[in-house]
Amino acid sequence: MGVPLYIGAGFWSFFFLPMSILKRFTPILVALLLVVSSAALSGVIRDGSFSGISNGSDITLRWVSEDESGALRYEIERKAGLNGQFVFLSQLALRGNNISYTYVDDSAFRTSESVYQYRIKVVLSSGVSVYYGPITVTHSVNSVAKRTWGSIKAMFR
To answer: Out of 3.30.1360.20, 2.60.40.10, 3.90.600.10, 2.70.70.10, which CATH number does the structure's domain 51-155 have?
Structure first.
């Protein structure tokens, strides 16, 4: 009699281990699972550091990296309102551990939405992606910025 064992590396695969082998290697399998899960759960972004604020024309996102080993890049995603899908905004290169990052979303004032949700997608070298957030930012567009943008668009019509 065998026991199904899941091994995953970006795809589903199952195989059966005879009970005698499973009993013999259980401590090793448990230790391996602990190492893999602790590596996957280690924080790339420092807990509580991801924040966003509106200044009336832009939305500024900030966070602090913690341990970027095993990470490839950051991807910033935004969702207008509380429903709908997140869309890709930008990609940022890694700069090192314990570094403060800032991303300015200067396209937020071009839309009529007043509430945005942001999240950071961290793409790991293993092919797995880890998400931080979402955070919600209320954005009230400054009327001067709105008029200025309208004036610029009008010049190019």
So the answer is: 2.60.40.10
